[in-house]
């Protein structure tokens, strides 16, 4: 189990760090996911910074548990946005099919964060 958790931790660490950086490089891509009543640029940069910090935290042994907990909380916060996207006329993710598939994937991410946290 150790090798699986270590692999997941490294993969998700890289993924989150990359996603966080992309929030700063291509903020317009992420703006579609942010509801109009929120300040898009601020929310985008905050989410990007959180993802970057979580990604780096997952890659450092001493901060893995805190980063996994933060990943879990962030994915929980993002869950309503992904559900909301399913019911939009034109989902931000692209198609209805992808938007629908993304919701169970969010639960998978929550489970992976949980696994990393407990091991």
TrEMBL record:
Transmembrane segments annotated in the record for this chain: 6-25, 37-60, 66-87, 99-118
Coiled coil location: none
Keywords: Membrane, Transmembrane, Transmembrane helix
Membrane topology: Multi-pass membrane protein
InterPro entries documented for this protein: Methylamine_util_MauE
Domain Methylamine utilisation protein MauE: 1-82
Organism of provenance: Tenacibaculum gallaicum
Stated name of the protein: Putative membrane protein
GO-annotated cellular components: membrane
Main location as per UniProt: membrane
Record localization: Membrane
Gene Ontology BP, a term: methylamine metabolic process
